[in-house]
Amino acid sequence: MDISSFPILSLIIFLPLAGALVIALIPRRNLAAIRGTALLFALATWVASLWLVLGFLPGRDVVASAAGSFQFVEAVDWIPHFGIQYKVGADGLSVALVVLTTTLSWISILASFSPIRERVKEYMISFLILEVGMLGVFLALDLFLFYIFWEVVLVPMYLIIGIWGGANRIYATIKFVLYTLVGSLLMLVAILATAFTFQAATGSWVGAFDLEKLAGSGFDGTFQLFAFAAFALAFAIKVPMFPFHTWLPDAHVEAPTAGSVILAGVLLKLGAYGFIRFAIPLFPHGAHVFAPLLIALSVIAIIYGAIVALVQPDLKKLIAYSSVSHMGFVTLGIFIFQAQGLQGAILQMVNHGLITGALFLLVGVIYERTHDRTLAKMGGLGAITPVYSAAFGFFVFASVGLPGLAGFVGEFLVFQGAFAFNPWLGVAITFVMIFAAAYLLWMVQRMCFGPVSEFLAGLGHHLTDMRPVEILTLAPLGALTVVLGLYPGLVLDLIAGPVKAVLAAVDPAVAMSIGR
Amino acid sequence: MTWSDLTVIAPFAAVVVVAALVILADIVKPGNRHLALGVVLAGLAIVGLLTLWTGQAPGTAFGGMYKVDNLTTFLDVIFVAIVALSCLFAPDYLEPRGLPIAEFAAILVFALGGAMLVAASADLLVLFLGLELMVIPGYMLAGYHKRDALSTEGAVKYFLLGSFSSAIFLFGLAYVWGLTGSTRIADVAARVGEIVAGQATLSPGLAMGLAFLTTGVAFKMAAVPFHYWTPDAYQGSPTPVTGYLSVGPKVGAFAVVLRVFAEALLPLRQEWLIVIFVLAALTMTLGNLVALTQDNVKRMLAYSSIAHTGYMLVGLAAYAAGVIGGLEGLLFYGVAYTFMNLGAFAVIAALQKRPGVSSRLETFAGLGRREPVLGILMVLFLLSLTGIPPTAGFFAKAYVILAAVQAGGWLTVLAVIAVLNAAAAAFYYLRVIVYMYMRDPTGEPAPVAHGALLRLGLGITAVMTVILGLFPGLLLPSVSSAAQAIGVAIR
Amino acid sequence: MSQSLDAYLVVSGILFAIGTFGFLARRNAISMLMSIELMLNAVNLTIVSFGAFIPALNGTASVIALMVMAVAAAEATVGLAIVMAIYRNRRTPLVDEYDAMRQ
Amino acid sequence: MPIPDTVPVLGISWGDVLFLVLAAVMLGSALLVVTLRDIIRCGLAMIVAFGALAGIYVVLGAPLVAAAQVFVYIGAIAVLILFAVMLTQAKNAPVRLVFQAQALPAAIAAIVLAVMIALTASATDWGAVTKRIATGTDALARLLFTAYILPFEVVSVLLLAAVIGGIFLAKREGRDA
Question: Which of A90, B324, C55, C100 makes an SS bond possible with B487, Cβ 3.0 to 4.6 Å?
């Protein structure tokens, strides 16, 4: 069977939706069936997404569609009046992020079995719809469709944090929604303006929302500035870049464990993906003009995030701020417009998704037992819960970029790019990161070694080590962390094409600005 | 009057007959709710079919006073839908309060007649009479719960400001008529066109007439700063009436705007564009800001309906700037707004089935658990009102914003104001969701059974809200042809 | 003077303004209704004056004036009915005492 | 003795005098309507204003409108209003303020409005203005039942609706109560 003709992408996007519908029909008291169905559909989606990788096996990546490097493209007219299509397609970048999403989704659902006991039905439905939105964003090739999936992500995440979150959840959710909505609505204006500009130039709405048609059409310079600014604002809020990051720590602290995993693992990537897929190819001139600003903000984010993380008493906040720092690497890597930087950025996106996801799972594990996340109260976990401590140590090591684990390669590539871009920049960042790494390792030491803290001792036998299910959720992430650390080529091969394409889109702009 | 006059005007005639039949049925069998509802729903179905049938053959009647074009048909179908849905939602609310349904339905159907006349008027006199026939029943409906102090209070305020604005509108109309020498919309447009083309300066009398007309219409559609009757009238009215008032007279007021400004005064569009621009910006912003501070959901939705007027005005401004898409966006918005707003009010009405239940936010606490279906529907309507895809409200907003962007220049600024407002509005819409799903109920009232008609109505509004969001393409051809009916003169 | 359109328009304008003042300044619902009636009368005077001085408008002016009167009658009917209803609930015709909804 | 065309001494025409007197009476009583403290007197002043306006309509050569003015405004509306006044006046009600707090701004706004309308009316070129023309009653009736049959019908529907709703609202109790 020819895998190019089967609507595999639609299948992947809408399988979770089908799952949500099935769950809607199950009586709410039948918890086992609800949980099982959710996991089943998430796993099925995951399997289907692995099928995508087949399309990008060595030797097949040449079989690209005529329009570009996208495969499995499906295009159906949706609102012909405006040339809006249901158009999805995948390239290596999409595939990497889709697989990341489907993997983290089933892990999150599995990890929610025990902590989520209230309104399980609504929870699972929200989660599966969230997955639909995320997958849609990574696969949409029509700007309008992309925007719709982009907003679809918002609502279930809002509900997940707002209903199953912590004490201060309402404040956190409102902040999350308002930040995101302001950015995305301005992006909507920019999308509509882009489409109209295309329509005015060609005299027809056909293709006005089609990414592949728009990317090559070379918009007027001033227009590019405005449009890029609007897109960039939406994406920068989502990443989040400094100074739009303040919603993130609140959201993380209040979110249930699985919500945090998805938030850190996938949602933050939506912003970076938006830059790479949409903002830069559509408006290369704008991207080039704004790059210095965005680089500066990225550097600030790296340093600021790392430093602020150090003083956080709350484990979740700590990881949240370190995410700000890590995502700073991603945006830095993107906007220095160099092959290594961009490769590193994308790799870092995947790695950060795996590692931070795992870290949030681990925080969830300890929180379920202690109902506390205060770092100062921990100590001597190694003696009580050796497996947990080992896992925690492993993922912190991965997070700080220990060579041989996944975190290292991405950061290293970005460093390389940064050095080439400006050596002083590279040196500054290196120092900060070494400092932060040292601190985090000290944190692991405080938490897991030394005498058992009074607080933990007081819990007595309630403080059990990891259960098999918990190990099962972490094991795939750990395995991938090792595999990608040893053989980053898995991802690098996949994204070689997209990286080339993005840089090719920027190059003329670089040339243009040098020419002036 | 000829036979062809009668066929063209058949839908309006049918409306009057339906109203009369409802009253008659009530006289024959007093207080028989099923009979009254049966008559009115069947009658509305016939009116709807007649509307579609006459819409097949556009034409004029009564010496050109009454005109059926695609816009007329489009608006008429919306009006019929609004009234029919209101009739579906009302019984559950009226019955427990001992309020009769026959009079309610009859008055509502009279209002429908007025709205249809407005949509079909080719003559300013007919338009004014239609407008009155549309709003006067509105005053009565607002006070329909006549033993309730709040209802009558809202009604008296609504009536006084409504009549005041009618007088202003009429004064403006008199001046426009005096200066253009005709009440025929086409003649007025031609005469105004001559004035504009003749490089003659706009005479002071015409300018003043225009100003009065604008003020009058702004009152009717509750644009800021002429909105202050809205909150009291909406909050006080029986909830199904509030739903109707927030949609019917509003779409009707836009029908007036389309016939007066977009058609009769089209040649002067450069002049009124500025006014509409300012009105739109003020209306969106102020409506939203005040809505933010409300903790009564009905009152909050009243202010939010003011904000929605603002979004629709964005479409009108874009049209004035020469983009036909603005008119299309406005019409699409009207349809989307009809279903989502009626739906939201229907949910409130359903919650208030037991007399004494307030519409304050606390009522909604824990609704998601108490009444899961109502909860989900309310979420849907609120998301649509916010403009989150894939709902009708999203595409409607996108449409008017696209038109504003298309018009370019200052209208792009208006588009940005609109989206910032939409983001701010999310705050208060989401707050209702917060109460429904994130707060525990303050005491667990016994569940109420909801009537079949109410459920049917909620189903229709919900399905339409989703379908118009997922497949807006289904409606676009009719929107286009309706806009073409008066928009041919533009570009 | 009685032969000049302007004079009539000025008189009707003043009448309209008096009505507006009454509407804005009075606090009794019935007084406000009376003020609205004055405004509608001003409109009618405007219309009839146009009809009397502009030949093209002569015939229609009276028709329109009659229609406006009918509308005024309908408005008055409904308005007074509402006033009766609220009076029964509140025992006062003063509009600014109707403020139950302002919390 | 023949009556001169103009008023002796002043030199203005009788028509003008009539107009001025009627206008003065109308505006004066209108002012009383909006300023008097006792609402019953307001109602009576309103009747005077309506009557004076009917006189002006006669001067303007629109006798049918004048007749309708008397029937509708004085005969129906004013009587209705007075009726409502009597029903809603509590005999023992304390003397209350008649005006809102914003009466002064309202007065200023009204004066500005009057001046604006007056200036606009005189600054506007009214095109084909002629001498006053009288309107024949026959012609009017013919218009009403031919060209304007639709508005005529609509007005009937409007009145019907108003009566049905009015009766419902003004009835002492709902049927089911």
Answer: B324
